[in-house]
Amino acid sequence: MENKIEKLKQNWESYILHKKLPEDTRILVKEAWDRCLAYGVDYNGGYGDIIPEKELNEILERKANLIRIADPVMENIFSIIKETSFSLVLTDENGVIIHVKENESIHKKHDSLRFIRGTRWDEKNVGANAIGTALAAEMDLHMLGAEHFCKSHHPWTCSAALIRNSLGEIIGCIDISGSVEDDHIHTFGIVTYAAKIIEKQMDLTASYELIETAMDSVIDGLFVIDKNFRTTNANKKILEIFNVNREEFENINIKEMFDDIDIKNKVFENGESLRISDYTINFKNNKHECLLNISPTKISGRVTGAVFFVKEAQQVRKVVSHIAGYKASYEFDDILTENEEMKRIIKFAKKIAKTNSTVLIQGESGTGKELFAHSIHNYSRRSSGPFVAVNCAALPKDLVESELFGYEKGSFTGASREGKPGKFELANGGTIFLDEIGELPLEMQSKLLRVIENNKINRIGSRYERSTDVRIITATNRNLREEIEQKSFREDLFFRLNVINITLPPLKERLEDIELLAEHFLGQLNQESKTSKKFSRNFIDYLSKNQWRGNVRELRHCIQREFYISDDEYIRTPRVNNIRQEKEININNSDLKEVEKIYIEEALKAENGNVIKAAKRLNIGKSTVYRKIKKFDIDIEVYK
């Protein structure tokens, strides 16, 4: 060893002092010396360049993860070499020492060379050395004695290995340095192996961080358990749902929380994935309604635990509402009028739209009650929420409660196995529009009253009430005060619904709007059909003189009918009263559906378009008549 060390000194003197390169000088050493000469490095120097404290702190902060991962690796190696003259240092990609594991016996020597934390050991500042040259040459290397450029480093032997990230970029360097007399071939192997361990640990940490980022980017709750029901990971959203910190969540008894689900047998033993579309999690006296997915986690085909995916029911229902088209289609600008009373009503409706008050809209059939309900919602603070419209008259009597308030799984024969939310739940955060409220059965009126009073609904078969945030708008063409006198409508419910009252005038009191509306409907038809039909003056006069018992709806249907019947550019001859031609029916030769349609039309004609009376005349339910009207596309307005 002494001969080798002496030979290296001779080589150094030959090249650095006399510019003669011995043949046995390693090429990488010669290249390093050349760089030092080009930099103008003083070979009598070689003392670490101390960097400003602010710069050091910034580097330490930026490299905190590298230091954290490298420290136990360095500690493990140091426990083996601590009785020797060797010590370990960690640098950043620029050669700044950021972490040291130092043997006390060489502490003074380190200090004298400024081989300490916060100093830079690149070739430009301290000459060729294992750290600086490894970074410059971008390769792991071992440097012995006089292979160092500066004379002060000749008593040292150093081995340095680069640390790279997953992209192959150099992020640091780990070095073992000691007395040249104690040089050992294994030090280079140790340091390169240490660098690989640090790199793998960095990759693993990056993978964990990527998983954490991915989990936290999911907008729904997510957590993982092992087969002992212990929580091993959880994202931020699940902590937010339960309003707990990570430590509190890890202490939750998951097995007890989901005791009604056979996770052990179905998920852990059979490897099944479970999906429950309507589930309630009870935690700290709070009920969290959600869609729940539980899937097994596997390693090499063996189940190791389960991952829980918790989607809040409110978010699910927003999506359902969007897909189902639960949104308001009209705005106040869609209400065409030149009538001063209508303008006053619109102004009033805009004002009350900004409140959360319950609204009762009254008026004859076809006056635009639904149009106002849509417009109030779209003008309100709830416009981004769902708008759920329900025709109370069209609901079968035995399904009214389940449609409005929903039901739990297995609550009655034919019920969905997973339960079903009602229209009030689907309207949460928005508006529910109960059209034809006068048709609501008495027993349902009392339940609706309870919902209005406490803002809670109770599903059929449920053991607890669910809170709701729903604005209620109702509409009717009936005189509810008369219905109250006839004991067919609850007076207390009427007062609850009639907080804000909007009564729409019939079209016969809005004569100035008839031509305006007719021209609007004609324009729509012309655009759809790509035609340019016009009204004759006598047709406009006829429209203005008609009573329009079906109001705006009847006017629209009249314009549609005359538009399609007219063969001329002008719509001249009014055929408004020609409801239909009488038909002679041969029962034997007729389609049963056609016969059914004609009987319904006859009943509507006899009862002036009153569906309830027509149903009684036919001795069938009103909901059946409504379904048949829709099925056969019957225009009841022409019979009123």
Give the SSE map:
Blueprint (H helix, E strand, L loop, with lengths): L1 H16 L9 H13 L9 E2 L2 H10 L1 H18 L5 E6 L4 E5 L5 H7 L5 E2 L2 H4 L3 H8 L3 E4 L11 E9 L5 E10 L6 H32 L3 E6 L4 E4 L1 H7 L3 H5 L3 H4 L5 H7 L4 E10 L2 E14 L2 E11 H11 L16 H14 L5 E4 L6 H10 L8 E5 L8 H6 E2 L12 E2 L1 H4 L4 E5 L6 H13 L1 E2 L8 E2 L3 E6 L3 H6 L5 H7 L2 E4 L7 H19 L4 E2 L1 H9 L5 H15 L4 E2 L20 H15 L4 H8 L3 H10 L9
Parallel strand pairs: 13-20, 13-21, 14-17, 17-20, 22-23
Antiparallel strand pairs: 1-4, 2-3, 2-7, 5-6, 6-7, 8-9, 8-12, 10-11, 11-12, 15-16, 18-19
Helix pairs in contact: 4-8, 14-15, 21-23, 24-25, 25-26
- Overall outline: elongated
CATH topology of the largest domain: Beta-Lactamase
Widest sheet: strand ordering: 3-2-7-6-5
Assembly classification = single chain
Report Rg: 43 Å
**What fraction, in percent, of the residue positions are helical?**
40-55%
- Give the termini distance in whole angstroms: 117 Å
Structural class: alpha+beta
CATH class of the largest domain, named Alpha Beta
How many beta-strand segments?
A: 23
* CATH level 4 superfamily of the largest domain: GAF domain
Outline the biggest β-sheet. Answer: 5 strands, antiparallel
Tally of distinct domains? 5
Just name the CATH architecture of the largest domain. 2-Layer Sandwich
Helices, by number, come to: 26
Low-confidence stretches: 575-590
- The fraction of residues assigned to DSSP E strands is 15-25%
